[in-house]
Amino acid sequence: MIRPARTGDDARPPEPSERAASAVGMGAPAAAVDLTALVADREKWLAAHPDDDASWAVLGSAYLEQARRTAESGWYPKAEKALKRSLEIRPAEKGNFDAMTGMGALANARRDFGTGRKWGELVRAQAPKRWSAYPVLVDAYTGLGDYKGAQKAMELLLEIRPGLAAYVRASQVYRDRGWREDAVVSMEHAAGAAKTPAEKAYALFRLGELSWERGDAAEALRQYEGALRTDPAQAEALGGRARALAALGRGGEAVRDYRLALGRAAVPQLARELGELLDALGRPQEARAQYEALATMVARDSGNGVDDAVLLGLYEADHGDAAAAVRRLSQEWSRHKSVQVADALGWALHQSGEDTAALEYAKKAMEPGLRSADFAYHRAMIEQGLGDEEAARRHLQEALRTNPHFSPLRGPLAKQALASIAQLPPGGPENIRPTAPWVEPELPKAAKPTPTPTPSPKPTGR
Length: 462
Hints:
This protein is mainly alpha-helical and 462 residues long. It has helices spanning 16-25, 32-48, 53-70, 75-89, 97-109, 113-126, 133-144, 147-160, 164-176, 180-193, 197-213, 217-230, 235-247, 251-264, 268-280, 284-303, 309-319, 322-335, 339-351, 355-366, 373-385, 389-402, 410-420. The longest helix has 20 residues, at 284-303. It comes from Streptomyces venezuelae.
């Protein structure tokens, strides 16, 4: 793809651009220096060979990986332009699968999961054994809240092409279903399948995330530091280390690491986390600066086609205009019925004083099985608002049992709320109310979202 095939006498190690091309083709993380080399290599080649559809697809996917590594959404329009150029030269109906899966991955990265699903399903219809369709489908189905579809696509991926991409998706699916041990084992398999430091570091970072979510801050710190030793440029792991340090009472070091991480990659979620840590440390002016930075980052992302509705809605619910959060997240729910959207919408409704409607979404968020301290805390506070203190007590206990360090702001509030709830006498049933079927509450009408480019050709059946 980058150079002619090697002869038997060519024992030289792969060039950086070749390593990155291999990683991009496998759907794996690539090292920053290798990516830079690949982008320069393909841009130079295409200046002289503008009708090379395969190289346009490689370049588009390399731009997409640059966006993932740097959190700079300005790479997305460049990726879209390159991938569309590839499809102009060799259309989808002629089997341009690399560009098609690239468009699906781009849509998922922008959190336009409906479009991601369309591209993935188009590839699958034309080439059911084409493994690269299935990571796109797992991510798209997950974002749409179709967890059974995600699991089925993941199982097919494992059957067709076991390896790093498959093990990462398996871990994701198991986590979303609440199967923590299976999620960890799958991510350990991903770490074992890694062929480069960048791949290994990514798997270690994800192991750190799994440890964090189950409340083991010390183990999470160990995994994040392992990722940083393996790939010092990884901003995600640096942000994770900051989170773990804050949980372990090392707030000054945590603030330092958050600032370093944001200097490497302007990730809106990290700005929110740093702002809330600074608030918890009694530094409100510095916290406000981070919230302003978050707004700037979200505006930048929006201009590049990225949907940050869940993050922005949660921020607005906690620190801004809860009614605006309800409107934003109602629109998001009309497009993406994932547990993250359900949780955020339920919380925004609670913050707007609409606890009856909020509870239905809080229940919906917890139905598939994801063990989240944030979800449990949100549900508990909604139940407390409705006067159901026994249910609130159970879910506060669940939140603190899942991860007692889940938030420097909300964690202490959860402990205070639990202490304030009177303990019921033992011996009676914990919940005597019958379970009613879930009925979606009526919400403000969603504005029609701006469409994202979608695949137009129909499957050929080939």
